[in-house]
Amino acid sequence: MTIENKRSSKAEMEDLIRARYSLIWVTSPEENRVEEALRKLCVEREMRLEVWSITEGFKTIANGQGTRDVKDPMKAIDHVIRAEGRALFVLRDFHPFLKEPAVVRRLRDAATELRKTKKSLLVLSPVTKIPPELEKSVAAVLDWELPTRMEIEEAARKVLPALPAATQQVIESDPGFMERVVESALGLTLVEAENVFSKSAVRTHTFDLETILEEKKQIIRKSGLLEYYEHREEFSDVGGMEVLKDWLVKRRSAFSSRARDFGLPLPKGILLIGVPGTGKSLTAKAVGALWQMPLLRLDVGKIFGGLVGSSEENIRNVIKTAEAIAPAILWIDELEKGFSGTGSSGQTDGGTTSRVFASFITWLQEKTTPVFVIATANNVQQLPPELLRKGRFDEIFFCDLPDREDRRSIIDIHIRKKKRDPGQFDLEKLIEATVDYSGAELEQAVVASLYDAFDTGMDLSTEGLLNTLKDIVPLAITMREQIEAMREWARTRARPAAARGRTPPKKAGWMARHGAPTANLGDKGAETSDDGERKLEL
Q1: FRET label pair with 458: which of 103, 145, 200, 514, CA 20 to 30 Å apart?
Q2: Residue 424's domain spans which residues?
Q3: Are residues 526 and 418 in the same domain?
Q4: Per-block average pLDDT, block size 10, for the chain (538 residues)?
Q5: Are 449 and 468 in contact (CB under 8 A)?
Q6: Are 200 and 260 members of one domain?
Q7: 160/207 Cα distance (integer angstroms)
Q8: 381/235 same-domain check
Q9: Alpha carbon of 504 to those of 126, 433, 477, 492, 514: distances in Å?
Q10: Which of 347, 382, 397 is the last residue of a domain?
């Protein structure tokens, strides 16, 4: 069985020893920290603690002294079986030896023999690699918890005296400062936290949050499955979508201990669906800067690959890595492309996609760690229905084409990013000429017009932008039927990312401007029935 970390790992271990569990597997990279906790436990219970390694043999570190030069794995197990009294034995990094059939067989024998005694045998390893023959003999698998907030704060306060006196006064006068430092270091091992606090003190003479986050990036790079995104986009770079932005701003401090004390649950995540190019991915990138949290991007394609069974292990590693550096944001772009094949079977991919998807949605439903998931999707028809039910995400937002005010905001943003003054442009003309354009198309129009201006030796102008816009066929036209179907689906199933009931357009959209008699798609929400139900202009 697997032990959930609902209680402290030390308390769980005490229960296992009292229950006479003979063979226990502990997974942790923090060898010294685990052994110190076990030493304290053995002192409290008056048990002998002996630790074995291939380089040192046995060493007694609690309720006894001395070493035994027993370095052979088989002889080490024999020593555990023959030893007398109440004792706990720890085998460090024993998993490589479990490739030998004789060692596996002897360990199974030990599990049987130790049930008759007051001794327990513990395999301590940074990975969980249990041979099939041992699965029933290993009575419990315990993932040793990472350092708690209290342990992290203790590590930080050990470095505090080395900081300048003025800095110490500033830190002590701001009760929230140390909490932010501890929050940023959660997910690091104790040694990693101590090292990064010391590095921060040397480099900046204080606890620098950016330096601490840099340490977390190393964990992500080692995983190979997740990509760390730097905070290049600001929240102000997102034009329109006031409802979605307001929702995110209100949850900016929802991961703090103050929010827990207030009774707020941890936010789980959001699903952003809608028209391609409407700012879903941009929003995900900008949230990392708004919340000052690491942003991790998961490419679902990387999960599927390699040997049989590796996909399932990959999704577990992704979850473990994300939780290890929490609080963090996990961004899954174009979710439907990764999990559209959930109806897989033995005739297609052996059911791998289904199993990976099941692991993911179970974690999404049950997770208690501060990992906020932002998933984006363009084709809602390909999303599995299990993913859309209540409880998986806090909210499902539909990102539609920008209306007049949204386009004004987006055009203003992109003109400013090109170091031009929006006041020098006729924004009303540009707004009227871009009825059916997405945010991405507006950005590309500005970029293309800038190239044209550079080539002719002119500067960016309203006329240049209008000429460029004439050559762009919006996605709303080429994918008109799909967008209509997407809007119809979202009308009763998703929350609009932008405010409804905006002012209707004065002119028709792209199709009408180019001689085709059809209603526009861009300025939505223009009509409202007597009972207040929104009528879409499709």
Answers
A1: 514
A2: 400-538
A3: yes
A4: 60 93 94 94 94 95 84 95 94 95 95 93 92 92 88 93 91 86 85 93 91 81 79 83 93 86 91 90 89 86 64 81 84 80 48 81 87 89 80 91 92 94 94 92 94 93 93 87 88 86 46 54 44 35
A5: yes
A6: no
A7: 9
A8: yes
A9: 61, 14, 19, 22, 20
A10: 397
How far is residue 518's CA from residue 538's CA, in Å, rounded to a whole number?
9
The DSSP code sequence of 337-384 is HHHTTTT--TTTTTTHHHHHHHHHHHHHHH--SSEEEEEEES-GGGS-
Which contiguous run of DSSP H or E holds residue 212? helix 209-223
Give the residue among 70, 9, 71 at the shortest CA–CA distance from 35. 9
CA distance 395 to 409: 25
Whether residue 100 sits in one domain with residue 181: no
Domain count of the chain? 4
Look up residue 223 and give its two tokens.
């995983």
Q: What is the pTM of this model?
A: 0.70
Residues in the chain: 538
- Burial of 69 by CB count in 10 Å (0-12 exposed, 13-18 middle, 19+ buried)? exposed
Q: Of 365, 397, 429, which one is at a domain's C-terminal end?
A: 397
- CA terminus-to-terminus distance, the chain: 55
Same domain for 409 and 508? Answer: yes
Counts of helices then strands in the chain (DSSP H, E): 24, 17
Which pairing describes strands 226-229 and 295-298: parallel, antiparallel, or unpaired? antiparallel
* Same domain, residue pair 307 and 388: yes
Residue 433's CATH number? 1.10.8.60
Distance CA 424, CA 433 (A): 17
d(CA 294, CA 434): 35
